[in-house]
């Protein structure tokens, strides 16, 4: 299984023709950041070109990051709010926020709604309160719940996002990425850094010229 | 008795189509719409409530009422039906303070018709109208006006609901599950631009087929009943 370190080293080797230089114009930390970005780009492409093309809508489990203990606070008039721990990839119907549930019972999922639908639902007889369930809408990096769930002591929630959040892992921890993604990630990152050239060395010192 | 909930039916559709919970709300809306239509015609759900008669002899209609089946009074374990009287005044009688009062407290008298009203003109027979077991359905007032001689404190109302009460969502006839599922699948296609006309039409026909099956299941008519209807209609001709 690949780690951030192993992937970054492979990319550096390829960038510098097999002889990594300490004074390289490209730093390993930049490469690691770019790996995260490239992974999520590939993940989104994979979802549209493979998953949805096959008629499926549910993202692959390998693409899902889990966050526990996300704090919830009361918000506005009888609602509650939580902040997303990471920004998921952008998918139709806000599927990037895959699941939200109370920490105490993560199998009891809240109902996802699209932005503004909670207002439309209020006028619908029988289903205006979602049959007693709690719904949520995603606005930017915030999740707004349709009820104030903190009233029944739900102060933390369990969130699953469709994102490859490699910031959660240190450089030596194996990353949960499919094997077939590794080559694609390295190619994408190489394309980003190949145009980066080492800076021109300007001689402007007396000692360089020699006495 | 086995009953299913709308939640169960919707999640069954989501599982069948491989959709996540992100489609739940949309499917729930379609399921509710289908249930409402089925309750009108096929499921034959008649709700019964005991309503209080107010001081000007009317009862307020429930908010989910679509049509009145019967209104009556309790008589032991039976309900004695009232008769609709089209002659009852649709207007409220208001006193000087603007409050609604019964008409028998009115002090002004209409002297156009001396003595009794010629009720034969209105099909009620001659003489004074003293039928206490009458009512009039007034949807514009959201009330049923009872005759002011109605001597009971309550009236029993049987009506067709639009299934907008909370218990409707958890009390769906199992026979209706396939029909509701077919309706949800059809509506998901109908409101999606990626499906062709032929696919939408096929889904619609599938829903219509399921609805016909539901009607057949709920129809109490049997071959024995048909046979008896024929047999009762047979009479000997005068010779």
Strand order of the largest sheet of chain B: 1-10-3-4
* Shape verdict of chain B: extended
Computed over alpha carbons, the radius of gyration of chain B is 25 Å
Poorly predicted regions of chain B: 111-128
Descriptive notes:
The complex is a heterodimer of chains A (211) and B (239). Chain A contains five helices and seven strands, in the order H-H-E-E-E-E-H-E-E-E-H-H. Chain A has helices at residues 4-15, 28-51, 117-121, 179-193, 206-209, and strands at 64-75, 79-83, 97-102, 111-113, 135-139, 142-145, 156-162. Chain B has five helices and ten strands. Chain B has helices at 6-17, 24-41, 177-190, 197-218, 223-233; strands at 46-52, 58-60, 65-75, 78-81, 83-84, 93-94, 100-101, 134-138, 143-146, 154-161. Chain B has a four-stranded antiparallel beta sheet with strand order 1-10-3-4. Classes of the chains: A alpha+beta (211), B alpha+beta (239). The interface between A and B is medium-sized, with 23 and 22 residues.
Write the layout of secondary structure elements.
The complex is a heterodimer of chains A (211) and B (239).
Chain A: H1 4-15, H2 28-51, E1 64-75, E2 79-83, E3 97-102, E4 111-113, H3 117-121, E5 135-139, E6 142-145, E7 156-162, H4 179-193, H5 206-209
Parallel strand pairs in A: 4-5
Antiparallel strand pairs in A: 1-2, 1-7, 2-6, 3-7, 5-6
Chain B: H1 6-17, H2 24-41, E1 46-52, E2 58-60, E3 65-75, E4 78-81, E5 83-84, E6 93-94, E7 100-101, E8 134-138, E9 143-146, E10 154-161, H3 177-190, H4 197-218, H5 223-233
Helix pairs in contact in B: 1-2, 1-3, 2-3, 3-4
């Amino acid at each position: 299984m690949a780690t951030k370190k192993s992937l970054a080293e492979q990319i550096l080797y390829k960038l510098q023709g097999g002889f990594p230089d300490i004074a390289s114009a490209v730093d390993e930390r930049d490469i690691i950041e770019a790996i995260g970005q490239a992974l999520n780009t590939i993940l989104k492409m994979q979802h549209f070109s493979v998953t949805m093309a096959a008629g499926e809508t549910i993202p692959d489990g390998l693409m899902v990051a889990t966050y526990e203990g996300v704090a919830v606070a009361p918000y506005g008039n009888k609602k509650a709010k939580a902040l997303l721990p990471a920004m998921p990839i952008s998918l139709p119907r806000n599927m990037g926020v895959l699941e939200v549930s109370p920490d105490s019972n993560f199998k009891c999922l809240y109902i996802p709604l699209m932005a503004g639908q909670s207002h439309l639902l209020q006028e619908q007889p029988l289903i205006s309160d979602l049959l007693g369930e709690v719904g949520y809408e995603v606005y930017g990096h915030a999740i707004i719940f349709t009820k104030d769930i903190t009233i029944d002591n739900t102060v933390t929630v369990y969130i699953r996002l469709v994102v490859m959040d490699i910031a959660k892992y240190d450089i030596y921890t194996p990353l949960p990425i499919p094997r077939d993604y590794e080559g694609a990630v390295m190619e994408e990152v190489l394309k980003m850094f190949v145009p980066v050239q080492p800076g021109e060395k300007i001689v402007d010192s007396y000692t360089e010229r020699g006495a | 008795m086995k009953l299913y909930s709308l939640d169960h039916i919707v999640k069954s559709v989501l599982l069948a189509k491989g959709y996540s919970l992100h489609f739940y709300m949309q499917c729930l809306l379609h399921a509710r719409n289908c249930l409402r239509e089925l309750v009108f015609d096929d499921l034959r759900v008649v709700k019964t409530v005991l309503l209080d008669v107010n001081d000007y002899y009317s009862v307020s209609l429930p908010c989910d009422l679509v049509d009145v089946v019967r209104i009556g009074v309790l008589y032991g374990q039976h309900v004695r039906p009232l008769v609709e009287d089209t002659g009852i005044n649709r207007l409220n009688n208001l006193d000087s303070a603007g409050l609604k009062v019964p008409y028998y407290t009115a002090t002004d008298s209409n002297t156009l018709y001396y003595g009794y009203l010629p009720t034969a003109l209105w099909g009620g027979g001659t003489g004074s109208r003293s039928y206490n077991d009458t009512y009039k359905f007034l949807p514009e007032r959201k009330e049923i006006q009872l005759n002011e001689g109605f001597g009971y404190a309550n009236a029993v109302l049987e009506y067709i609901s639009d299934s907008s009460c909370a218990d409707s969502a958890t009390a769906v006839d199992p026979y209706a599950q396939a029909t509701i599922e077919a309706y949800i699948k059809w509506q998901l296609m109908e409101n999606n631009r990626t499906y062709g006309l032929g696919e939408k039409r096929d889904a619609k026909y599938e829903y219509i087929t399921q609805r016909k099956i539901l009607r057949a299941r709920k129809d109490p008519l049997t071959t024995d009943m048909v046979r008896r209807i024929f047999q009762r209609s047979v009479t000997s001709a005068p010779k």
